[in-house]
Give the backbone structure.
Amino acid sequence: MPRVLVDATAVPADRAGVGRYVDGLIPALAAAGADLAIACQRADVERYARLAPGAEVVGGPPAISHRTARLAWEQTGLPAVADQVGAALIHSPFYTLPLRAEVPVVVTIHDVSSFTLESRRATARGTFYRSATRTALRRSARCIVPSKATRDELVRVLSADPTLLDVAPHGVDQSIFRVPTELEVDRIRTRLGLAEGGGYVASLGALDPRRNVPHLVRAYALACADRADPPALVLAGGADADDEVNAALATVPPHLRVLRPGYLRYDALRGYLGGATVVAYPSSGEGFGFPVLEAMACGAAVLTANTLSLPEVGGDAVAYSDTDVPSLAASLGALLDDDARREQLGVAAHERSLHFTWEASAHAHLQTYERALEAP
């Protein structure tokens, strides 16, 4: 296959979201024998040189660490890099693309929540993603989506041509996300200030309405208010809470503990997820659901929403709930009361997670690249 230029300049410093995707995909593409070039932030040059030995890695100008400058550079600088490295195709892995590239461009569209969720529609970021999604559908050679649900939503909401949408599920790095040791679990409990053996309900991700964090907080309070030894609720991964989250936190009875440790180190996540009594992720706007898959790989009992892509990831290895507060409270309470069910889910979840590999995802991406190169 001719050389492919992967644009990794949108990867954030905390490696969340698009970082998980690009960092997992690139070494798998390299291992599959793809002829790669990688454009990235200056700070990531050594990282990608290590992840993809033999790839030509090009660091962009320092200014592109700011989103506005990166988007401007994408229109002229990225096509220039493609010409410089002799790329026959550009893969833009995060919605946007250069409009005047002289080679085909493949774009990854991760979800459609900016169209379907009012909490996203009403923001400047939502306006940006709606515009970028429409442009990608109109101007790219092909689009990659991480789930059948996202493909179906693009067809339903935007009348996208399904023959130009390719499903390539994400993988999970089993060297990082695996069943933790007792020592790893004890370390995270110590960091959280929990007693030895202390239970907790874990949440991971941004504290925003899309992930139903306000409903989760209220459901936790309802499910645990009368328990003799209630678990704590830990909201990890998001530093800033909006007004809805703060209003929900204000309703939690004082004898219940809600902890907000902020972002956890990457190598602490398996202890955090695998050590939880329940991992709760009742999101209503997921294009894939990395936190669910990562928790499954850590052998956690997961409670998630029966919406969009999440059943594609969880299958019958996780528990599901509607996202309203009474349903969430009932489902959470039932899991907390059933030790055997939680153990069964943890085993099944880990086994199912083994089927989500970056090797399989890379193979699907390579097929898309071939289709894009063969298209008129």
In short: The longest helix spans residues 67-85. The chain has a mean pLDDT of 94.
